[in-house]
Amino acid sequence: MASKEKVSQLPLSHLRATTHHRPALTVSSQLRHGEVALVGAGPGDAELLTIKALSFLQQADVVLYDYLVSDEILALIPDDTILVCVGKRAGHHSVPQEKTNQLLVDFAKQGHRVVRIKGGDPFVFGRGAEELEVLADAGIRFQVIPGITAAAGATAYAGIPLTHRDHAQSAMFITGHLKAESDEMDWSTLARGNQTLVIYMGLMKSDYIQEQLIRHGRQSSTPIAIIERGTQACQKVFKGQLSQLAELAQDAQAPSLIVVGEVVALSEKLQWFDQEDQSLQQRQYA
């Protein structure tokens, strides 16, 4: 490979010619009849959808989606595709998980090309593995297309790095679906300093999470953030200290992500996402 000095001496016309001869990016994978593709939609911004995920959405005969898949992503699906909502909300399970599993099997056995699309990444608190186990038991072929999980996408759009040499040498992802009477979380480990704790689906248990983290050693002054609808034009970020988590959670709505750690303080300097610009772009695309 040419050194930086040698590259800088090349004529501009040569660099342009080299760029123009780059091979076009193509997607060779195909979604076959009677097959299911488990697809991660990412945290919401349609432009974060992977090329392969978009290709499979456009090949599908049937798409089963949940409430975390944004309207902008659903709008990319061809009009003649069968759309089936199998979403769940806290306290309102519109479609039981067993029903979703059976729909996937039935549509595949009918010979359809099926996409099961989930918000974020299907293998991160998304029950993706459970659905694939059912398909495997039924002898259904399947593929997995990963997506950007909310912990990576939402924090990036909020200007919060998951790790930093001075503030966090590790990051941990946990679910907030906790039951106090059967809590098996290792709170001593979760409450350690110099790490970032990201909590999915934790709004309803925010008071319990706050109590346990402080009780097991996390400083009450630790910076925290709640990111509502991260990466989308309507994104909101509520910031404060760990002692204020339960109070801040009262103003946030699902889907939201809780971030605990010193890295949250960096968001004042690293904030870059302009929701007003994003809203303007969406109006222009409409």
UniProtKB/TrEMBL annotation:
Pathway: Cofactor biosynthesis; adenosylcobalamin biosynthesis; precorrin-2 from uroporphyrinogen III: step 1/1; Porphyrin-containing compound metabolism; siroheme biosynthesis; precorrin-2 from uroporphyrinogen III: step 1/1. Belongs to the precorrin methyltransferase family. Pfam families: TP_methylase. NCBIfam families: cobA_cysG_Cterm, PRK06136.1. One of its GO terms (molecular function) is lyase activity. This is uroporphyrinogen-III C-methyltransferase. One of its GO terms (biological process) is cobalamin biosynthetic process. Gene3D superfamilies: Cobalt-precorrin-4 Transmethylase, Domain 1, Methyltransferase, Cobalt-precorrin-4 Transmethylase, Domain 2. The keyword Signal does not apply. It comes from Vibrio renipiscarius. Its EC number is 2.1.1.107. Residues 36-246 form the Tetrapyrrole methylase domain. It comes from the Bacteria. PROSITE patterns: SUMT_1, SUMT_2. Keywords: Cobalamin biosynthesis, Lyase, Methyltransferase, Multifunctional enzyme, Oxidoreductase, Porphyrin biosynthesis, S-adenosyl-L-methionine, Transferase. Coiled coil: none annotated.
